[in-house]
Protein backbone atom coordinates (compact mmCIF):
# COMPACT_ATOMS: atom_id res chain seq x y z
CA UNK A 1 0.00 0.00 0.00
CA UNK A 2 1.29 3.43 -0.92
CA UNK A 3 0.67 5.36 2.30
CA UNK A 4 1.54 8.73 0.75
CA UNK A 5 -1.28 8.43 -1.82
CA UNK A 6 -3.82 6.77 0.50
CA UNK A 7 -6.31 8.48 2.79
CA UNK A 8 -8.57 6.47 5.12
CA UNK A 9 -11.23 7.62 7.58
CA UNK A 10 -13.09 5.39 10.02
CA UNK A 11 -12.31 1.78 10.81
CA UNK A 12 -13.34 -1.83 10.35
CA UNK A 13 -15.92 -2.41 7.62
CA UNK A 14 -17.28 1.17 7.71
CA UNK A 15 -14.14 2.99 6.54
CA UNK A 16 -14.19 5.41 3.61
CA UNK A 17 -11.47 7.09 1.62
CA UNK A 18 -8.87 6.03 -0.95
CA UNK A 19 -6.24 3.29 -0.98
CA UNK A 20 -3.43 3.20 -3.55
CA UNK A 21 -1.63 -0.07 -4.28
CA UNK A 22 1.23 -1.08 -6.57
CA UNK A 23 0.84 -4.76 -7.42
CA UNK A 24 3.16 -7.23 -9.20
CA UNK A 25 0.28 -8.89 -11.07
CA UNK A 26 -1.18 -8.15 -14.48
CA UNK A 27 -4.13 -5.80 -14.78
CA UNK A 28 -6.24 -8.73 -16.02
CA UNK A 29 -5.40 -10.79 -12.91
CA UNK A 30 -6.27 -7.90 -10.61
CA UNK A 31 -9.52 -7.18 -12.48
CA UNK A 32 -10.57 -10.83 -12.15
CA UNK A 33 -9.54 -10.86 -8.47
CA UNK A 34 -11.81 -7.93 -7.57
CA UNK A 35 -14.74 -9.25 -9.65
CA UNK A 36 -14.48 -12.59 -7.84
CA UNK A 37 -13.71 -11.38 -4.30
CA UNK A 38 -15.85 -8.25 -3.81
CA UNK A 39 -19.17 -10.18 -3.87
CA UNK A 40 -17.76 -12.44 -1.12
CA UNK A 41 -17.77 -9.34 1.11
CA UNK A 42 -21.32 -8.31 0.22
CA UNK A 43 -20.47 -5.84 -2.58
CA UNK A 44 -22.77 -5.86 -5.63
CA UNK A 45 -21.23 -4.88 -8.97
CA UNK A 46 -22.94 -1.91 -10.63
CA UNK A 47 -20.78 -1.52 -13.73
CA UNK A 48 -17.35 -2.35 -15.11
CA UNK A 49 -15.08 -1.34 -17.97
CA UNK A 50 -12.04 -3.45 -18.88
CA UNK A 51 -9.33 -1.57 -20.82
CA UNK A 52 -5.86 -0.07 -20.28
CA UNK A 53 -7.42 1.74 -17.34
CA UNK A 54 -10.18 -0.49 -16.00
CA UNK A 55 -12.96 0.59 -13.66
CA UNK A 56 -15.32 -1.49 -11.54
CA UNK A 57 -18.03 0.10 -9.39
CA UNK A 58 -19.78 -1.66 -6.50
CA UNK A 59 -22.43 -0.83 -3.93
CA UNK A 60 -23.08 -2.20 -0.47
CA UNK A 61 -25.63 -0.70 1.86
CA UNK A 62 -25.07 3.03 1.97
CA UNK A 63 -21.64 2.95 0.34
CA UNK A 64 -20.09 2.93 -3.14
CA UNK A 65 -16.69 1.41 -4.01
CA UNK A 66 -14.77 2.16 -7.18
CA UNK A 67 -11.74 0.10 -8.22
CA UNK A 68 -9.45 1.71 -10.82
CA UNK A 69 -6.77 -0.54 -12.33
CA UNK A 70 -4.03 1.16 -14.37
CA UNK A 71 -1.67 -1.11 -16.32
CA UNK A 72 0.45 1.75 -17.68
CA UNK A 73 2.69 2.09 -14.63
CA UNK A 74 6.30 1.04 -15.20
CA UNK A 75 6.59 -0.17 -11.59
CA UNK A 76 3.71 -2.67 -11.72
CA UNK A 77 -0.03 -2.35 -11.92
CA UNK A 78 -1.44 0.59 -9.98
CA UNK A 79 -4.76 0.08 -8.18
CA UNK A 80 -6.94 2.78 -6.61
CA UNK A 81 -9.79 1.65 -4.34
CA UNK A 82 -12.12 4.51 -3.38
CA UNK A 83 -15.01 3.99 -0.96
CA UNK A 84 -17.53 6.72 -0.21
CA UNK A 85 -20.98 7.02 1.35
CA UNK A 86 -24.02 7.42 -0.87
CA UNK A 87 -25.93 10.65 -0.43
CA UNK A 88 -29.27 10.58 1.40
CA UNK A 89 -31.25 10.67 -1.86
CA UNK A 90 -29.76 7.39 -3.08
CA UNK A 91 -27.57 9.03 -5.72
CA UNK A 92 -23.86 8.39 -5.95
CA UNK A 93 -21.97 11.12 -4.08
CA UNK A 94 -20.04 13.56 -6.25
What does this structure look like?
This protein is mainly beta and 94 residues long. It contains one helix and six strands, in the order ββαββββ. It has one helix spanning 27-37; strands at residues 7-9, 16-23, 44-49, 53-60, 63-70, 77-85. Strands 1-2-6-5-4-3 form a six-stranded antiparallel sheet, with helices on one face. A hairpin with a 3-residue loop joins strand 3 (44-49) and strand 4. The radius of gyration is 13 Å and the shape is globular. The protein starts with 6 loop residues before the first strand and ends in a 9-residue tail after the last strand.
Short overview:
Helix content is 12%, strand content 45%. The protein is mainly β.
Number of helices: 1
Helix content: 10-25%
Write the element-wise H/E pattern from the N-terminal end onward: EEHEEEE
Oligomer: single chain
Strand order of the largest sheet: 1-2-6-5-4-3
% residues in beta strands: 35-45%
What low-confidence regions span 5 or more consecutive residues with pLDDT below 50?
none
Helix/strand class: mainly beta
Annotation, overall tally of beta strands: 6
Major sheet size, sense and barrel closure: 6 strands, antiparallel
Name the shape in a single word: globular
- The radius of gyration computed from the alpha-carbon positions, rounded to a whole number of angstroms, is 13 Å
Distance between the first and last residues' Cα: 25 Å
- The average pLDDT score comes to 90
Amino acid sequence: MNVEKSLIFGSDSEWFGRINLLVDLSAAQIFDFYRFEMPNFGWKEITSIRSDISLITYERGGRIATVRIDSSSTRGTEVWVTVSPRDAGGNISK
